[in-house]
Write a structure and sequence with these properties.
236 residues, mainly alpha, Four Helix Bundle (Hemerythrin (Met), subunit A), Nonspecific Lipid-transfer Protein, Chain A, 3-stranded mixed beta sheet, two-stranded antiparallel ribbon, 5 strands
Length: 236
C-alpha cells in the first residue's frame, strides 16, 4: 500500500536532505569508486538521482498541462543519460542533484488538486495519479542515499518508510513470482510480509530495516532463516 500523499511529500524532502548530506560526506575518490550496485560507481548513483528528478518533472508537466510527456524516451536513453551524467566534471555533478531536486519541488508546488489527480505513466508503464510522483521520488532519494556507500543505512531511514517500501517491493516481487516464496518477520515489528514465489515459504527474521535492505536487493546483516536466507533475483 502506498503512503498518503502528505507522508510521501515529507519523505521526499527528508530523503533529499539525507541524500545531499551523504553526497557531501564522500570525497571525490570514493565517489568515483565502484559501489554496491553492479556496474555503477557513486557518480552513476548521483547522475541517476539528479536525472530522475528531471524525468519526474516531465510527469509534473503532464499532470499540469495534460500533454503526454513520458519520463524517458526509452530505457536505452535513460541508461545513456546516466552514463553521460556520471562523466560530468565532479563539481558540476555534485551540484546537479540539489538543483534538479529544487526544480522538481517547485514544480510540484504549482499543481492544483485536479492536476494532482490526473493520470500519468511511470517508467515501468504503470498508470498512476500524479500524487504518486512524491512516493516515487521518496523511494529514489531514500534508497540511493544508502547506495552512495557512505554512512547512511536503512536503519537511518524512517521506520514507516521502510515498512512502506517493504509493502511496495513485496507486491512487485509477488507479481513476478520469479523468486522464492517468503515470509518476512521483523523482530522489531508485529507485522509480517508475504512474498509469492516458488516453493514452500521461507520465514526470514531480522530487524525491519535489514529486511527492507534484503528485499530491495541490498546487502543486509542480522537475518536468519531455518534453511538459510534465500538468494533473491533483482527487484527492478
Amino acid at each position: 500500500m502506498s503512503p498518503s500523499h502528505a507522508q510521501a511529500l515529507g519523505w521526499m524532502h527528508e530523503g533529499t536532505e539525507l541524500f545531499l548530506k551523504a553526497l557531501e560526506s564522500l570525497d571525490d575518490e570514493t565517489l568515483g569508486a565502484p559501489g554496491p550496485l553492479p556496474g555503477w560507481t557513486g557518480k552513476h548513483v548521483v547522475a541517476h538521482v539528479a536525472a530522475n528528478a528531471e524525468a519526474l518533472g516531465n510527469l509534473v508537466h503532464w499532470a499540469s498541462t495534460g500533454e503526454e510527456t513520458p519520463m524517458y524516451s526509452s530505457p536505452e536513453q535513460r541508461n545513456a543519460d546516466i552514463d553521460a551524467g556520471s562523466q560530468r566534471p565532479v563539481d558540476d555533478l555534485r551540484r546537479w542533484p540539489a538543483a534538479s531536486a529544487g526544480r522538481l519541488a517547485e514544480s510540484l508546488n504549482t499543481l492544483a488538486p485536479e492536476q494532482w489527480a490526473r493520470e500519468v505513466r511511470t517508467a515501468q508503464g504503470r498508470t498512476v495519479p500524479a500524487t504518486e510522483i512524491a512516493w516515487m521520488r521518496s523511494r529514489e532519494v531514500m534508497v540511493h542515499a544508502v547506495d552512495l556507500g557512505g554512512a547512511v543505512t536503512f536503519a537511518d531511514l524512517p521506520a514507516a518508510f521502510d515498512a512502506a517500501l517493504l509493502d511496495d517491493v513485496a507486491a512487485k516481487r509477488s507479481t513476478g513470482a520469479d523468486g522464492p516464496a517468503l515470509v518476512l518477520a521483523p523482530v522489531d515489528d508485529d507485522r509480517t510480509w508475504a512474498v509469492a514465489g516458488a516453493g514452500r515459504p521461507a520465514t526470514v527474521r531480522g530487524p525491519l530495516a535489514q529486511l527492507t535492505a534484503y528485499l530491495s536487493g541490498r546487502p543486509a546483516t542480522g537475518l536468519h532463516a531455518d534453511d538459510g536466507v534465500p538468494t533473491l533475483p533483482r527487484w527492478l
